[in-house]
């Protein structure tokens, strides 16, 4: 677990650093070409990919029971996130304020945590 927290923490710190730099650079390059603005905008995706890599590495280290708990939690997160985002999308059709796509991942993360709580209680 220690190496997982180190890997994920380092990737998250790098993400926050690159995201901050990206947002500041976008302000300075508002009149630059589209290609440069796209590169600056997508730069935080690289450390976000490192976070994905850290999570996958941790899943590979788990024993069968903990892997099953994670599988059930991710299954719950997938279904619950789909249900919530689709439901809210329908509510936008009748005037609910638009929520940016950036909120989908935090919803998935919260549903993953809830799924972990449910799955862990099942196996304890």
Strands, helices and their partners?
Elements: H1 2-28, H2 34-42, H3 45-61, H4 64-92, H5 104-123
Give structural notes.
The protein is mainly alpha-helical and 124 residues long. It has five helices and no strands. Helix 4 packs across helix 5. The longest helix is centred in the middle third of the chain and has 29 residues. The two termini are 20 Å apart. The model has no long low-confidence stretch (mean pLDDT 94).
Features:
124 residues, mainly alpha, 82% helix, flat, 0% strand
Mean pLDDT: 94
Instruction: Tell me how many strands there are.
Output: 0
Shape: flat
- Structure annotation, total helices: 5
Terminus-to-terminus distance: 20 Å
- Content of β-strand: under 5%
Q: Major β-sheet, in short?
A: none
Short description:
This protein is mainly α and 124 residues long.
